[in-house]
Each structure stands twice: as C-alpha cells, then as structure tokens.
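Input chain follows. Return structure tokens only.
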Amino acid sequence: MQIGEVQVAAKGKISQTREQPFQVSVLDAKPLQVQSQPVTGLVNQISGVRVREDGGLGSNVNIMLNGISGKGIRIFVDDIPADLLGNGVAINNLPVNMIDHIEVYKGVIPTKFGSDALGGILNLVTRNVKKDYLDISAGMGSFGTYQASLNSRKYFGDKNNAFVGISGFYNHSDNDYRMDDVTIRVDELNNTTTGSVRRFNDAYIAYSGKVSLGLRYANWADLLRLDLTASQINKEWQHGMTTERPWGEAFSEESNLNVELKWKKSQMLNKKLNAIFNAGYSYINTCFIDTTAKTYYWGAVDGLEKYVSSSPGESGYYVDGRNPVQYISNSFIRFNLSYLLDKTHKLSLTSLYTRSDINGHDERGIASFGADILSNPQSLNKFYNGIALESKFWGDKITNILSGKFFAGNAEVVALDETINITGYNNNSYQRWGYGDAIKILLFPFLNSTLSFEHTYRMPDKDELFGDFISVFPNAELEPEESQNLDLGLRFKCLKSKLTFNINSFFRNTSNLIFLNSLNAWKSTYMNLLETQTIGFEGELKVSPLQNMNLYANLTWQDIILKDVDDNGDIEERYIGANVPNIPWLFGNAGFSYMLPWHITKSDKINIFYTCNYVHDFFLSWEIDGITSTKATIPQQVVHNAGISYTTLNNRLSFSLETKNITDEKVYDNYMVQKPGRSYATKIRFFISK
C-alpha cells in the first residue's frame, strides 16, 4: 500500500467515496499506521494539496487546495467541523493510529458536511473497529520529540451490541532545531551579524483522552454513541510572523472539554429512509502569557546576555504586557436525512446549526487600552441547510448530484473606536444561497470523466469577526467570501488497477476574500480585500510494476491573478492582472514503497518507503515590483524522506525507523521561518484484536 488516491482494492466506504462524481481523493491511513509520519505529512502527499507549517511539531498549519487556502479550506473530523472541537483534534495533533482514512474534496462539497468551505475540505475519518482491539504505539525523534497513542474498544452484552472505547495521545517536542542566517547581537550597541542559532522557546506539549460509550444493532438505532473528550495544549512562542526578533518567555495554554452524541438509523420506512443525528458541546479555555520585561536576541557573542531589560511584553507595544484569558463555548446540532425515491433517485437533506460564545479578561491589557476589552461577551450563530438529488442514468453509467445550499449567520461583535475604546456592539447578519451540480460519466470500463460546478459562500468565523485582542482586533463589517468553482477530471485505470492516472483541471473565481490586514506595527484586523481568479491543473500517476511494489507521482500547477481590489485602497489598482504573491504555484510529490520478498518467519513483513516533496520558489511580494534578482523569495525546496518498517507476529508487533530531510536542506514554507533540518524518528506499535 502507498500514499495516493487509488490505494485500496477492497470495496467499502473508501471505494464508495472515490466513486462519487465529486473531485475527491482518499488516503487510506491503515497501512501507514506503522510509520511515525504525522497526519500533516500524509496530507501533504496528496495531489493538489500543499501544507505550509511555521516550524516543527505543534506549529501553525495552513492548507492550500487547488488555489484556495487558509480558512477557505475546512477540516472535519467524522463529518463534524473540527473548529467546534478545539485544537485537541487539530490536524497537527491527531496521531495516524487514530485515523482510518482521509477524504479530500476539491471544488464542489457534498451537502452532508453542512460546510461553508470556499474551495474544499479535509475529512479525517477516525477508526471504527467492529471487534475488540487494543492498539498501543510509542515513538521518539530528533529535537526532543516524544509521542504515544492508545486506541481500544471492548464489546459486551448478549449480542456484543454494547461497547466502551478508550483512546488518547501524548505529543511533546522541544523543537530546538538550528536555524541559519539569523541576526545575532555582537555588542552592547546592538550591532549585529548573521549566523546559526538554536531555537530556545518553542516547546510544545499536547495530550488528550477520550471515552466512548455506545450501543449498536438496536431496533431503534443502528448506533448510539456518547463521546467524552478532554485535552490540554501548552505551547511556547518563539517569534511572531518572522524570525527577525525572538520571543524568549511568551507561552500559551489551552484546555478543552467536549461531549458529543451520535444517533444513526438506516432502512426505515420500507428500507428507504436513513437518518443521522449529531449534537455536541465544547468548552475551551485559552490564555496567552506575555509579561516578561525583557527583549531577547538570537544568541550573542563575547559573553553578552541574550536579552536586555525593557517594558513588559514581547509580542507588541504594550504598557504592562498582556495576559488575556478567553472562554469559548461551542455547540452544534446536525441532522442528515436521505430518502430513496426509487432505484435511480435519492434525496438528501442536511441541517447544521452552530453557536459560539466568547468572553474573558485581560488585567494586564487595561494599562494599554484603559479597559478590560475581553470582558465584553461576543457571539456568533450560523445556520446551514442543504438539499441534494442524486440520480443515475443509462444503467448507472451516469451519476448526477444536483444541490442547493442556504447559509445564514448572525454575530454580536464588540465595537471599538480608533483609540480602542468600547462604544457598544455591532451586529453582522447575512443570508446567502448557493447551488451546484456534479456529474460522472463512465466512458469506458477503464475511463470515466467528472464535471462539477458550484456557486458557494464562506461565512466569516469567530476568529475573523472577534479577533484575539492581542494583535487582531474585531471587524463586524466583514462580508461572506464568494466563489464560483469549476472542475473537470479524467480517471484512467487498467491492468487490474496496477496502472492509474488521474488528471483534473480547476477554475476558481473568488471575491470578497478575507485577508488579515496590518493597520500599524501592533494592530491588525481582517478585511474583505481581494477578488481573484485561479486556473490550474493537477495530475497523478500510480504504477505497480512488480508484486509488492508501488510507485506514485503527482504535480500541481496553478495561476492565481488579482481581478479587482477593495475600495479602501489597501491594494493598488496597478496590481490587477498580476499574480497574487506568497502562494506556491508549482509543487508535487513522488515516492515508492516495496515489501521485501524475504523474511524471517512467514508472518514477517519488511517494507521500505521513500517520499520526495518539491515546491518551486515563489515571491513574498508582488512580482511586478522591484528587481527580480533582489526580491524577497521563499526558495525552492526538494525534501527527501525515507524509512523502513518491520512487522511480525501476524501484524501484532511492528517497528519503524525514518529519516526526514535526508540531505539536510534549508526548508521554508513561509518567509524567513526555517523548518527543521535532517531528523530521525523511530516508532514501536503493538496491536491485538479478537
């Protein structure tokens, strides 16, 4: 088995997902659970996807998919928006051992997700083993990295129809890797030079525990499950947007408590009606501590201290530093109904209601702002309703899904004047209608084509509307983002799927894009700034030339140009028609896996694997400005990774050893923020099932 869209021959949910008329890639995580690769690393291998990170374990993650990135790409966990559940289930926290497979939808999004994503989603589908099992893994790696996970389930009762499950994980890393070409202080006059330094305030710890209680195969429910989850995240902050000036003592903490109920019943009303109900509540407590009266430097020479005395606060221009505490509560209710009208037509309806409330306190901030601006509660309500008609024609050779969507929202946002004084509340309300269609045609047994179009919206989220009152301030006037998405794809397979080739072309016309706009050195706010147009192509090839050998390669090219600007003058009209900066335009992946033909016992498996990630260099600022040879550039990167795994005792026990960035390249996803160099990781896994 190897990373890519077409990995699994066995029929099941993965195969059914791939056969939809949408542009969708599915990565089967089960064969990869022996590896120490994080979920973000697996996602980064999928065609059309680029993951940008600020550093090592626990760093900020930005996912780009077919020209759209950031909040325009939504992440789901078991069909539920991950942002409702806190960072304990963030994509950079969940271990691979908890994931069954990953679905990546590009362009048109199925109505079942209740999503207001602008151009795509990632759905992390967790494991649902239908028998007793225990899965324990532990690993360690470079830069003080330690990880462990536990997954288990026990069935009981006369018909084994009741179960209890326990799962959890622990992630830790010092992230103390070296960075090159960093400014170093050389004397008390603050003269500097450049050199190599080690990160010193970037440790990350995340741990989570989950208990599941459930019942299955009852007359009134195929499944009833209650999940209780608690998680804690402690993170040190090494710097701001770039590494120019380090932070030496700033850190944040986050604790989460989640409860979720799921009910599922199929084949009601003469085996025509299926229903799923989800409800959940999460309570999130976050704090950011920035109170030290020191200004740090990247290292020093001749015995100089790494810091000098200053006013409190490293992250901005504050009188007494900052220690904001925020309390966030999220609740949601989701219904999904599907009704079989006849043998060739199915009607689906999905409704999702979410509410987020936020308040808090910031005693240190009073000295800077004259009031505790976090003590004023803010709220956001969202409602989504989607309907879809799936039809099959011509002996099931043509599948068409026609959909309509309704988006509505209401937010109560704190209103501030130019001097950050609270003047009351602003209300932001909106209603939008979206629509789309997706069709798949089986041209030949070995070739099918897909065509999909969608006019959709993305509602501003709580981060954009409310800000964090640290460096991002509220804006109640944000409008929903809007996009027209068009995709055309071909899927080819032959030689019993030993050779597969997929190609997809995509078009995005996006307006009212929400960008974080800097107002001064310490204050920024989200604004609707841009209208862009994207065209692109992606292709993926997978070959199995020998038994137990798999090779794959994919490449994505995209051209994103500015079509119009906002009325605020933040971006000049002369940039219309130019490529939008700071976005990769050419990237790809390649790799192989090979199971060695020799072994010690019949149950042994020795697998070697290799991956390569390529990203072409791209400019930080507008290409038409300045001299190309001297412009700020995120450099080209070619990163090689390799490993070996050994499995024995009928898949019960496995070991793996991996090397990432074998050639120790200087790797940058973002400008002046270097990622880790060469690193090593090892993992041991024990799995038993009844």
